Sequence to fold (1578 residues):
Amino acid sequence: MDWNTMLSYDWGAMMPEFIILGTTMILSILDLFWPKHFNRRKLAWLALTGIILACLSLISLLSFETVSILSDTFRLDSFAKAFKLLLLFGAALIILLAEGYEPKEGLREHRGEFYYLFLTALLGAMVMSSSGDLITLFVGLELLSLSSYILVGMRKHDRKSNEASMKYVINGGISTAITLFGMSYLYGVTGSVNLGEMSRTMAAMTDGQLQYIMGLAFFMVFVGVSFKIAAAPFHMWAPDVYEGAPTPVAAFLSVISKMAGFVIILRLFLSLFLTASGDTFGALDFLDKNNIYIASLAGLTIIIGNVVALRQQNLKRMFAYSSIAHAGYLLVAVATLGGGYFLLDTVWFYLMAYVLMNIGVFAVIQLLSSQSGSEDISILAGLGRKSPYLAMAFTVFILSLAGIPGTTGFIGKLNIFLGTFITEPGHFVLAGIMIAGTIVSYVYYFGLLVQVFFRPIHSEKVIKIRPGLYAVLIICVIGTILFGVAPNIAFDFIHDQFGDFTDFISSK
Amino acid sequence: MGQLHIYQNNYLIVFVFLCLGILLPVIALFLGRLLRPYKPTDMKYTTYESGIDPFQDSRVQFNVRYYLFGLMFVIFDVETVFLYPWAVAYDELGLFALIEMLFFVVILMLGLIYAWKKKVLKWN
Amino acid sequence: MNVYLLSLLVFSPLLGIVMVALMPKKEERTIKQFGFFGTLPPLFLSFFLCSQYYSDVALSIFDIKLNWIRFGNLEMYDPKLFTVDFELGLDGLSLIFILLTTIISSLAAIASIYIKKEWKGYYLLFLILEMGMLGVFTAENLILFFIFFEMTLISAFFLIGRWGFLEREKASYSFLIYNGIGSAVLLVAILILFARTGTTNIAALTQMMTMGGVSLFAPISGSMKYGLCLAFLVAFAIKLPVFPFHSWMVRVHAEAPPSIVMIHAGVLLKIGAYGIIRFGMGIFPEQYKSLAFTIVLFGVLSFLYGAFLALVQTDFKLVLAYSSISHMGIVMMGLGALNEAGIQGAIFQVISHGLIAALLFFLVGVLYERTGTTMLPKLGGLAKSMPIFSGFMLACGMASLGLPGMSGFISEFMVFLGLFKSQPMLAAIGVIGLVLTAVYVLRAVMLMTFGKNDSLIEKEKWDIRGWEFFPALVLLSLIISVGVYPNLLGGPLQGTIEAMMLALGGR
Amino acid sequence: MTGVPLSAYLVLALVLFCIGLYGALTKRNAVIVLISIELMLNAANINLVAFSKFGVTPSITGQVFSLFTITIAAAEAAVGLAILMSLYRNRKTVNVDEMEMMKN
Amino acid sequence: MIKDLLHSAPSLLNFGIFFGLAVLLLFVVLGFVTYGILSERKIMGFMQMRVGPNQIGGKWGLLQTVADVLKLLIKEDTIPKKADKPLYILAPVIAFAPAFMVLATLPFTDAFQFADIGVGLLYYMAISGISTIGIVTAGWASNNKYSLIGGMRAAAQMISYEIPLVMSLVGIVLITGSLNLNDIVAAQEKVWFIFLQPVAFIVFFIASVAELNRVPFDLPEAESELVAGYHVEYSGFRWAFFMLSEYVYMFAMATLTTVLFLGGWNSIPFLDFIPAAIWFGLKFSAVFYILVWIRVTFPRIRADQLMEFGWKVLLPVALANIFLTALIKELLNLF
Fold:
């Protein structure tokens, strides 16, 4: 690997990452050396600029052919492009959210740190989505995790925040260890950490013992990742962490971090297990044989998420459970593999919908809770009368989360259902659970709307919305409705740009 | 086979040293027991502190500095984990690796500057 | 111009929505006026379509089809696979329902004058509701149908929960949950069809399901067809509502604001009947046929059950609510008769009940506005204080119990005509219901108009006056004209029913 | 050294991993929990190195991977302890059971 | 014979032979420690213009240290009531065992070396780090404020200086491309690394003094502040083992310095008729002498100066040295 090899690499493929990295470093230096009285809030705009630049460079890379550099550890394939686009988009929204974050206490001294820790987390997620081997994947995952541990504990003097981050560290640590242990077995049975190579080895595997280990590895990795996406029964941390974390961080966890979890699942499962052989005769049906476990986890997640959300009084906790449920819906798509035709665009679209609606909801929560100092459901009361536009925006998000037609959430769910029904035999039980979960979710989602529209006004204080939050709300509302009414904009985009994601496995 | 045996024997030696390192104190202390007197009085077993028993447990909260240095150590010690293999293989890696490592170290230095600026390295 | 007429019709309430949205909150009068004006464009457009029909223009020229959504990327198999187009269409059946919708909406908008608060939000939701209903009746594919269907659901949820009576929140919740379950079942059925066939176009689906040997994207077994048919039936039976699924509807009728109940009883419930005809009967005629007995059975059950319970209610709104259940039982009976008379009767019943219920609830609204109660024991002697009102009430009651010359008679007569042909036993049992209907209607109306009660002090100017005549008269005249000249409806329906009969094996 | 089969390393790693998991799930002291997590990570390291030497297709990658793992374990420990410290400052406890401010 | 032994399959016999040899080395080391201490005291005496030990064992006090050891051996052993007994007993072992273990890989001459393992340098660094644990354990187990603070200080100091110590050696590794100590010595046949890596040497030497907890970096056992640091509560032979490990480390560190920077047993040009062992001995003695010299010369520095010096000066310098070395090497390759 000499100078020439280095020059021969297409470094442009890593441009978005470099931009984010550079922004992070600039931000951290600025935060360090700028005088104390300087308002760190302005750094948000710098961070946003960085993200937008990265986004632009990514867009300019869209027409790039699939490249893999650094001996196939870093791949820029359509999968990576698609998910990075989403990650950057979500990140931009969350930065705007954070810009307007004004809690009763805290974040004053650490506001500057928030932005660059956030960007490092984003960087981790981006690296993950482009990773071509296990090491990059793992390092990206940990970059994301470690940054988010700190982000959760950002409010250093708030006990809840401390507790939340401690819980997150412990749970995250355990899950990391389990994932890693699984990965070590994967390495053991294939003798490589390159995903493409591993997939070839695993497809050709006929040794029963090795397959047994592979199964073990599958479970371990899956359990570890389930922690990350907060799938039941590994979801226990989510409500506590969401409650304790600053609101933008909670939004980040529920959107970006979750997305990253699905990125690993897809990367690993699609490139490794989908074509792994499932028996000693070399039939490539490993995932077919084992997706019952994913499916049951998905079902369980949906049930627990929705049912427990019913009795939550704290908004953030409620949305923690709601996001657990949504992870369940997405897992349905993974378990059914989108029926074989819809997997990646389903997951992508759903995640995009989720970015829009969930960040929107968190924007409203943040606005109301920082103004009233409480996170109880009752702070929503009378919002419909006090500020009807905000209430309308909130309604749009909630309807979308509930999967009501005309919103992105509906199209997303529709996609998932298509995948469950298209196969023969169809996954009717899973679909049944999902639909039942949706109905149950109506109860608590509409319970919020009842607060908003049917209850007397909670406090007369005028709600001041910072421009950043305004932007978030407007973007989210427009996006939620637009992609609900004309989802083809998104579908055409992914089909035109990314085709069928066929360059997923084949290297170079 | 020869190479392997050398390899194994060398580590056997290391193991021998480990055993010896543990055995010596054990034996010495055991022998010492035979030689030394044993005349316990209460005073002998008090903690050394102005002649009276300390009022409370000595294991009070440590200064937070110690932890911070501990954390710093962990981070920078791990940095060397990467520096060593890099240094060993540097001949084969060349300029590219140098730049890569520079990148890595600059980021870590940023961490050091951060700690410096945040007064972590101050001992008070 | 023709091509966009239907979309224009469906989205014409948007004009009103924009107008209302732009008004400041406080302008009560203007908002109410604009809200009403907002219902006029669809009304006129539907009249125009109607006139087109009567001037022998084929309704199919109004069909519109635009590319909309394509799921997945399966272009290499078939460019139309997994596409959902934006397609609206019109036939006789939907034309009638559209007319019903636009007329009742306009009248309900007038009746909404009694709404006491937040007119802006009310009218916005009201117009969205109308848009949803119009969409439901013109949608040519299942996904589009479902979208409009849910639109009505959500807007009605808010309308009930915000502007209803005391127990409104509970009512809106049970409305939401029941209908949510119904629509979930519907959605599952729709999506199974979509996933397995790759299309949601109703015509295409009908073709695929009725003809054998069409290659599907994934197989649909015979039992699955039964399941799907049943799913459609259950989904729409909840909406209708039929006996075991009815409890939500009672609450809604009792708690929702009268103007919304006008729409609810007048149009929303009818979506159930429309759906059963279009999807249950239309797409799965074979399966539907074999389920006919069950359908009639449930029809009879709810007919009798509703009538019995209506007999013992003390709240007039509840009497009406149970009578709606009962009348919807008649619809089911007619639909299960599987012959021309039965189906025609059922559709007639749907329309006629729509008109009658709208009028009754309009009167309830007027009554509540005056007296502040709808409890039968508290009312009474209205004939003295409100003679004109009582006259309308009486006429309406007569229509409801099926007095000849009113629309109710035609429909009930035809339903029983059909049913006696195909299921004489059940028809015979059903007849008991007719008697019960007469009893409870008369009991309630008599109690109100002639009952002894002095608590309501006679007051001047209590009676129906001014603009209030308009809705009442329009509705009553429609009821009578349908009753006198049934072909008004029979004509447009002819084609649809014939097609149905053909599919059902023309008995 | 050929006398020691691969499975021995794997069993050792598995045992360590299980001890770590047990500790992480049952211990009440957060420090011990963190140590248990480190134990689990190190068990994975043993696996990686063992596979890299005696695996089906031996390669150096396993050792490289373990280097990265070590780094990450260190970073995780650092972050974990830092958070624990700030928790301790506010709560005066490192007991996991006492972290119960948030209950639904 | 040793060569054959190394080539044979490892067995219990090998173990026995190695054990015997190791015991031999142990006695050598013990001898060194005994007379190292004496010589230190003598040198100090000389520098401070006094005589030093001169009563026992003739004019030079040759048996002074021996007597000291015997005294320690027959001293009563006390363990404070409040101490954590198991840890208290374990601590000296943890402190001593690694000190002895590091000797296993050090090459004294080309012929006299025990284990020649590929990662000798890393081995030394890794094992020597364990001693810190022993010291902290001792401080903790004694349950005494002085010892606890002493132990913590020792730990903080040792870990802080370990980093520059380790990093300063990266330059050498860069040049030799190996972690094997024999290779490193072989690479110095022409030029010693003290000339090629002067910066590294300075950093290394300062850090090594700090690692050894010697003046001016002897804060953990600063008599005037902390009574005796982490071993306040220790007496008799338990205490002796802390001392022993300290001096064994001194022995090892002096050896390592010789090996890494002074060319090990390599001779100065034209003087290669002198045996390697003597060369080694000379260089070793010189390092040892300098260590003692420093002890006598410098005053103890303050705790805050100590830490800041390590992190803010030594670490950046060490890092800079690494890149300078790499860059120069690259440039030399280019031209």
Summary: Residues 6-91 of chain D form a domain with the Helix Hairpins fold (CATH 1.10.287.3510). Helices of chain D lie at 6-26, 30-54, 61-91.
